[in-house]
Amino acid sequence: MIGLMSGTSCDAVDAAAARLTLEDGGETLRLVPLGMVSAPYEDTLRAALAAALPPAPTALADVCRLDTLIGRAFAQLAARADRELCGGRAALIASHGQTVYHWSTGGRVHGTLQLGRPAWIAEATGRPVVSDFRPRDIAAGGQGAPLVSLIDLMLLRSRPGAPAALNIGGIANVTALPPAGPPAAFDTGPGNALLDAAVRELTAGRLGYDEDGALAGAGRVHEPLLRRLLAEPYYRLPAPKTTGKELFHPGHLHAALDGLGPLAPQDLLATLTRLTARTIADALRPLRVTEVIASGGGTRNAVLMRMLREELPPDTALLDSGALGLPAAAKEAYAFAVLGFLTLHGLPGNAPACTGARGPRVLGSLTPGLRPLRLPPAPSRPPLRLAVGPPPG
């Protein structure tokens, strides 16, 4: 299986390949990682995508062009992943697509839009493609996100204590198994979204992100700005809840800066880094978790991870998802490979307790490859646990 993912940072496409098999009478799904390849969006595509994202006005012609260009980018990487990681023997490709809009009002999600037409992937690879994972959960009353919560729960069930999974992309999200009560999953707020937007503005586009947190590490947190940013009502909404760049865009930051006077670039970035760390820790604290397993691009920012360590309770462990066998940069792509496997086998891909859906649902739409589509028999029950790595012995 190949999982394709491009997150809310909108900078690249990742492809992770895995061998997936059911064990223990279907109770355990074993994932053997086969590797990951990644490719940045071409500069012209990245610029066109950034120009089309809300709150910018967008023409349907632009949406159509982006749908095709993103689909081609995904297709090119999928063909490469099949060739380099699977020896040309991939059975299925699962494509998340590129989220360009998540329609949420008053804590309820009404729709979502991911671009990257799967027909381009099927044509380039000859493999069947599962895509459009989120809409079915939304149609069932859910948030449509974070869909990785089901895979997180399968991983966390083998951990001691009260574990949580954290992904820091453009938007940060958590999945937690608290010591009491049902599991929880939701978007905590901006992961890298405001940080990256500020870096692009401050450097006139020369830099896309604060590498290793070097700029933020040279600054000091501006407390008045931090208080303004923390006043955002989203942080106090109850879970399940999801958000995106529809809220956390450059205009959100400009409104908070209004009237504060000059601010050194390093101080601005230090403040935004602290905002991400504080909102993640504030979201996790009521869940009384004992360890946080982090993944996503934000884990490469040493200053952000240091601030997060400072914000979390002293007795809460913070580790990288690589410790569980899933590299932090590839975890979400692997998660969508698992979701594609579940869809292919007629198994639910959502966790209703986390997304708010009325019940379990089989997710996604299937696009056939070059050969007739033959679905395997559905297992009698969905797997409860995810084991990573070759079987013992």
Q: Nearest-angstrom radius of gyration?
A: 20 Å
Per CATH, the class of the largest domain reads Alpha Beta
Principal-axis shape: globular
Q: Major beta sheet, specifics?
A: 8 strands, mixed
Average pLDDT value? 95
Question: CATH homologous superfamily of the largest domain?
Answer: ATPase, nucleotide binding domain
Q: Helix share of residues?
A: 25-40%
Order of helices and strands: EEEHHEEHEHHEEEHHHHHEHEHHEE
Task: Describe the structure in your own words.
The structure is a single chain. By secondary structure, the chain is of the alpha/beta class. The chain has two domains: 209 residues, Nucleotidyltransferase, domain 5 (2-Layer Sandwich); 166 residues, ATPase, nucleotide binding domain (Nucleotidyltransferase, domain 5), CATH 3.30.420.40. The chain is 35% helix and 23% strand. The chain is built from 13 helices and 13 strands. Strands 1, 2, 3, 4, 5, 6, 12 and 13 form an eight-stranded mixed sheet that branches. The chain has a five-stranded mixed sheet with strand order 9-8-7-10-11. Helix 2 packs parallel to helix 3 and helix 8 crosses helix 10. The longest helix has 26 residues. The protein is globular, with a radius of gyration of 20 Å. The model has no long low-confidence stretch (mean pLDDT 95).
